[in-house]
Design goal:
The protein has about 800 residues and is an alpha+beta fold. The chain is about 30% helix and about 15% strand. The structure holds 2-acetamido-2-deoxy-beta-D-glucopyranose (NAG) (12 copies). InterPro entries: Chondroitin_lyas.
Length: about 800
């Protein structure tokens, strides 16, 4: 579980995205030149023209008939190649072609950018890109006999669903047999399903040729343990089980069996952990993910296993998974040491309960011990009381924007499995009325380069994705969630094939407000942008909120912000420290060793530091927000009207020591093309304004203007309203701890931050300051005279019109 930025996540994904079509390995050439993506654009453009023609002729555009009338002109250019499960020549996708599908325009996104965000071409067709919707009659077969979404489940649980009473047929977990039966015809018609199927087969073939997953222990059993190992096994097993069910080729099953025997600790050639505790309850997430992996294999391949194999898998699930799950709930000593997660919200609760639930559901009915039923009696109510409570009342995930992925993946797997296996979610979707909004949180925390990735970034994702969005889209009847996710690079995996509702239509951006204020005191924060589809615009996010209640994944970061302009992150985050550092997760208290590490300290944030001290861990700031309230329309060429703005302000007085009063604000100026950050502070100790950037910094105007260059783009940063007598100027500092900081624990070091500089302004003495920092991105179509200089309005008096003059 060593720290990995989400960029490295992207790189890991890239190595799977751009598999060389014949070798199955990462092809950097392909990564730089995604020729197939250009072809998508051309296909899309041709199909769009065809659709428009059809609309003119038949007036059917936007109707279910038009949607179903998939062109076959572009389908089926998948090429065989590589060596896989099929007697040495497995199916590797061509990654292009496929049906026109919904709206007959192919996939909406034509490519992903260097940050793996979708790129949308110019779209102005309201019938296709209008309001998000699920087409009501899509579950009944249309003229060509193929519905665009799954038929209704032929099984129903009866009046009183019970977690221990399962559907009669297999599979039960996430993907019942009636869905498998419908899938091939749907794949043939839907460009998203078609592409995902290709990718999953490509991945399955790639994994097929990889060696058995090693038991590499990260930082000791109770450090980061074997979580990466567990997630790798899970992602492999999912892909192979999918490939088998789509082909009936038992080579996939044999490969799965070899992996599982190894991962059960039964391969005498390979060390795979402590006997009886091979799944490593010392770091219980590992038990959760291994149990989930075995559950999927057991259930999806149920009919093809030999009885002896099935039994062997069941006993591994019982002895290495569920036994320790029961221990975590019934033995207080064990609970204190390894089962603490059953009393807290957040990703641990979701992953541990989720994996144990999948394991129990898989073996119910076969289990001679009763442990499966007993397990569900604990996990289902516990997840309802804790996992489901991870989003606060505004939908913000209690840990961080990156931990949202781990929590929601496990929550969606658990909930979906309970629904398909037993017919109810038992309140996992409804116990927290704000769970629905955590999908909205994910949409708004996604910036124009990466996430607003405050706090810890978390371990490698492997089997973890944002595809819970597809599940929540259907469950909460909110098509924008489905539409948002289906164009993302991580959408291609087996769960998506069953969670995606292909009857969805529209542009997810149509009618979506540009700004959103998340007002819960746990993390008050705001997301503001110029567009949903032009990632070369402006994205600004700033947070305040409590420093407690984040499961020790937060930072002392009141007032922290990120800024994206012109496709570059000019103000960014440092991410996780080393999870294995002494005391890194010790507590959220003021004296926690966590707060000794630079990346967690206030000076490691884009925030003000007072008296060279950390912020107050018991902070309880307040916040305010305003917006002119625009939503994007159906076009991808949308621009905001003159006067469009948004602001976020926060009173950080309680967040600091030695501060009499402090208001920070961020406001979009000049129709969202400039940004002002203002700090009105009265302090009795020194004040230092800090911002971390990957840009190269030079100075002008006696060092009161900083010129930031990054990725070929330039942003001018001006220090306005310099208090007389202070002589304050910008200064570049190293992204490193102050010499006066308390020492790190013995033997510990901070992570280096290569390429990162701190843009700073220092006021050596306490006093009353109004620090205004103005960001002027050098847009292609703006000249020097187009930039405005804002007035100095006290932050406490900001309104949507206060900066108009
Ligand atoms: C498979 O490959 C896709 C892209 O090709 C990648 O984004 C994804 O992470 C991989 N899926 C899994 C589940 O590993
Ligand atoms: C899924 O992809 C594989 C690999 O390209 C292909 O052989 C198979 O026909 C696809 N399935 C469907 C239903 O199109
Ligand atoms: C897996 O373990 C084997 C044997 O110990 C070793 O040779 C190999 O390098 C390891 N592979 C990885 C990816 O760690
Ligand atoms: C592994 O071995 C144990 C002990 O013999 C057995 O209970 C279990 O079923 C085996 N599991 C697999 C997958 O081989
Ligand atoms: C409870 O858990 C502790 C710690 O893992 C263990 O030492 C002890 O044997 C367990 N007690 C029982 C009764 O199983
Ligand atoms: C589940 O819990 C209920 C109430 O706590 C109890 O009556 C029931 O016996 C338990 N069932 C199992 C299978 O443990
Ligand atoms: C979920 O949230 C969305 C967006 O706020 C809303 O439109 C939808 O009605 C909600 N759905 C449910 C079931 O509450
Ligand atoms: C913020 O922290 C304070 C005290 O530390 C606590 O009373 C309050 O409930 C917390 N607010 C939230 C939303 O967690
Ligand atoms: C964003 O700007 C870059 C150049 O900085 C350009 O290559 C790219 O095409 C632009 N993207 C969009 C979606 O306009
Ligand atoms: C610098 O760039 C890296 C890689 O893109 C990114 O992970 C990091 O967050 C950036 N740092 C800052 C301070 O913007
Ligand atoms: C307040 O400031 C004084 C003087 O700078 C300093 O000695 C003291 O440590 C500060 N208190 C806190 C809690 O930061
Ligand atoms: C401006 O900054 C440069 C280098 O950062 C420094 O050498 C110079 O002394 C500064 N000038 C003023 C007026 O502060």
């Amino acid at each position: 579980m060593r720290p990995l930025s989400d960029i490295r996540y992207a790189q890991a994904a890239k190595s799977e995205t751009y598999l060389n079509q014949s070798s199955g390995f990462y092809d950097p050439q392909a990564a730089r030149k995604p020729a197939s993506k250009r072809k998508w654009w051309i296909i899309g453009a041709i199909l769009l023209l065809l659709v428009i023609a059809a609309a003119v002729v038949g007036g059917i555009l936007g109707s279910n008939a038009a949607k179903k009338n998939a062109s076959s002109a572009s389908s089926g250019s998948s090429s065989a190649g590589g060596s896989g499960a099929n007697g040495g020549s497995g199916p590797i996708s061509g990654g292009q072609g496929g049906p026109g599908g919904a709206g007959d325009v192919g996939r909406f996104a034509i490519a992903t950018d260097t940050y793996f965000l979708p790129i949308y071409p110019t779209e102005t067709n309201q019938a296709v890109y209008g309001s998000p919707t699920f087409i009501a009659d899509a579950s009944t077969a249309s003229s060509d006999g193929v519905p665009s979404t799954f038929p209704a489940d032929p099984w129903s649980p009866g009046a009183n669903p019970d977690p221990t009473v399962t559907r009669p047929d297999r599979p039960r977990l996430i993907a019942p047999s009636y869905k498998w039966a419908a899938l091939p015809a749907m794949i043939a018609e839907d460009p998203y399903l078609w592409g995902w199927n290709e990718t999953i087969f490509g991945n399955a073939t790639f994994y097929y040729n990889e060696p058995l997953t090693n038991y590499s222990i990260d930082g000791g059993y109770s450090g980061s343990g074997v979580l990466d190992v567990a997630r790798q096994v899970k992602v492999k097993v999912k892909s192979w089980a999918y490939a088998y069910r789509m082909t009936n080729d038992s080579t996939w099953v044999d490969r799965t069996w070899r992996e599982l025997v190894n991962a059960a600790g039964n391969n005498t050639d390979n060390f795979f952990g402590e006997e009886g505790n091979n799944w490593n309850y010392y770091h219980f997430l590992d038990v959760g993910e291994f149990t989930a992996a075995f559950a999927i294999a057991y259930d999806w391949l149920y009919d093809v296993w030999q009885p002896s194999q099935r039994e062997a898998l069941m006993w591994s699930i019982i002895d290495l998974g569920l036994t320790w799950g029961i221990e975590a709930y019934t033995n207080q000593t064990f609970t204190n040491d390894y089962g603490w997660w059953n009393a807290v919200n957040g990703n641990w609760n979701c992953v541990c309960n989720g994996g144990l639930t999948l394991g129990a559901l898989a073996i119910l009915g076969d289990d001679p011990t009763g442990i499966a039923a007993q397990m569900l009696n604990y996990t289902v109510p516990d997840a309802k009381a804790n996992c489901a409570m991870a989003p606060s009342t505004d939908g913000t995930w209690s840990e961080t924007a990156n931990y949202w992925y781990f929590g929601t993946t496990a929550h969606a797997e658990m909930t979906s499995s309970l629904i398909t296996a037993t017919g109810s979610d038992y309140g996992l979707l409804t116990a927290n009325p704000s769970f629905n909004d955590t999908a909205l949180f994910h949409i708004y925390v996604t910036g124009m380069t990466s996430l607003f990735n405050y706090g810890d970034h978390g371990p490698n994702k492997y089997s973890t994705t944002a595809n819970g969005m597809l599940f929540y889209g259907t469950q909460y009847d909110t098509p924008v969630y489905t539409l948002f996710q289906r164009d993302r690079f991580d959408a291609a995996e087996p769960w998506s094939m069953f969670w995606y509702d292909g009857s969805v239509a529209g542009g997810w951006w149509d009618g979506l407000p540009l700004d959103h204020y998340f007002d819960n005191g746990l993390d008050q924060w705001a997301s503001m942008r110029s567009s949903w589809t032009d990632n070369n615009g402006t994205y600004v996010a700033m947070k305040s909120g409590n420093h407690t209640g984040h499961q020790t994944h937060g930072d002392l970061d009141g007032g922290d912000f990120v800024l994206d302009f012109m496709g570059q992150r000019f103000a960014g985050e440092l991410g996780s420290g080393d999870y294995l550092s002494t005391g890194y997760f010790s507590s959220e208290g003021q004296d926690s060793q966590r707060w000794l590490y630079y990346r967690k300290r206030t000076e490691g944030q884009n925030a003000v530091v007072v008296g060279l001290q950390n912020q107050n861990a018991d902070a309880q700031p307040t916040a305010n927000f305003g917006t002119t309230g625009e939503s994007q329309d159906y076009t991808t060429t949308y621009t905001t009207p003159a006067g469009s703005t948004a602001f976020f302000t926060t009173d950080l007085t309680s967040t600091y020591f030695n501060v009499t009063s402090y208001q920070r604000g961020v406001v979009l100026l000049n129709n969202r093309r400039q940004v002002l950050i203002q700090d009105d502070i009265v302090s009795t100790a020194s004040v230092q304004w800090r911002m971390h950037t990957n840009a190269t910094i030079t100075y002008q105007d006696g060092n009161t203007t900083a010129i930031l260059t990054l990725g070929g783009q330039t942003c001018e940063v001006k220090l306005l309203n310099i208090p007389t007598g202070t002589g304050a100027t910008f200064q570049t500092l190293e992204a490193a701890r102050y010499p006066s900081d308390p020492p790190l624990p013995p033997g510990q070091v901070d992570q280096p931050n290569p390429g990162v500089s701190v843009l700073s302004v220092t006021f050596a003495d306490g006093g009353s300051y109004s620090i205004q920092v103005l960001f002027n991105p050098q847009w292609d179509d703006m000249s020097a005279s187009d930039f405005v200089t804002p007035p100095n309005v006290p932050v406490s008096q900001w309104t949507v019109t206060s900066h108009n003059s």
